[in-house]
Amino acid sequence: MTAQPARSTAAKCPSCQCAMLAMCAHLALLASGCTEPLNTSYGRHNERPMPGSVNGTDVLAGMFSEAGHKVAFRRTLITSNLEETSTIVWFPDDFGPPNETVRDWFDKWLSARAGRTLVYVGRDFDAAPLYWQKATRLVPPDMQAKYRAHQLGEIAFHDRQRSPHASEEVGCDWFSLETDPLEKVQDLAGPWFSGIDAAKTEIELGTQLVPPQQAGRLLTSKDKVLVARHDAWHGGQLITVANGSFLLNMPLVNHEHRKLAGKLIKAVGPPGRVVFLESGTGGPPIDPAAEAITFWQLFGGWPLNVILLHLAVLGIIFCFARWPIFGRPKLPATEGTSDFGKHVAAVGQLLFRSKDRAYALSKLSDDAIPPSTGSK
To answer: Where are the beta strands (DSSP E) in 127-190?
Structure first.
C-alpha cells in the first residue's frame, strides 16, 4: 500500500472527515514507529500525551461522533452513570468469554429500557503485525529487515496470548467460541455485504463467536459468522463482532472497513449517548465502591497533573523573584520630623484635594495671623 492510493480511497469515503482522521492516524503511527516504541494497547482511546494505538478505538469513536452520537469512555460499569446511555461498545482485552456477573449486568441493562444496544467485539485480532507489514513497504531497504523482525515478533506475541485459549471449547449464553488458525477472509456474505468489495478488505478471522440459532447473521464468510445480532431484550439488541480487524484504528484506514463500520453505526439506531467500555482480563468492575481522592492524587490525573505542575513551577519562580534579598540589607536614610515646611505642604495638598477654591481661600484667611499692632 502506498500513500497515494490510500489518499484516493479517502476521497471516495462518504464521511470525508472520518476518512481524513483515519489517514492522519495511520501517518502518525508510521512516523512514530521510527522514533519511539509502537503503542499497541488494545481497545483503548488515546490518552494524551501518549501517541494513538494501532489497536485503539479513536477512529471508530470519531465516526460515531460524526454520525451525531455523544461519545464517552468508561472502564467501570457504574449503573447510575449509564442510565442515559443508549449504546455501549465493548472491546474487552480478554480472549475468554465475559463472566456470568458481567453478562447478568448487561442483560438487566438491555432489558431496563427499549432501544438499547450492546456491541461486543471479540479479542482475537492484533493490528501490530499489519502495521509493521505495511510500514516495511514505506521505509528504505536497509530498514526493511528490522521492520520484518518487528512484525514476526508481534505475531509471536499474539500467538502466545491466544494459545492458552486455542484448545478450549468454551462459551456463554450469548455465543460459543470456536477457535481456528488465523486466516484472511476471502469471501463475504450477509446483509452487510451489500456495497462491500470483499477483495479489498483485510479482515482476519480465527476465533469466531457462534451465536444461537435464533440470532441474525449480518456478515458471514462461508460457514463462519463475523457479525451477528440478538434481539431478545424488550427492544434492545446485542451485536457480536468476531474481532476488531475492521473496527480498530489501523484497520479503519481501509476504505471498505469504514463502510462496514458505517453499517455498524447505522445498526445501533438514532443518535444518542454512546459509551466505549474498556476492560482487561476478567471484565470491568461493576459499581465499585467510591474512593476518597486526596489532594496528592490530583497530580496523577490528566490534564490536572500538567496544569498543577506548571502552576507549581510558576509559583516557585515568583517566590524567588519577589521575596529573596540578595546582598547586604541597606537602611534607607530617615527623614527629619522638625521641618515645618512639610506641614505647610501637607496642608496645601489637603486643600488642593478639596477642589474648592473659595473654601481654601477662606481657610487661609481665617488662619492668617494679623500683623502686630503693638506701640512703642
So the answer is: 176-178, 183-184
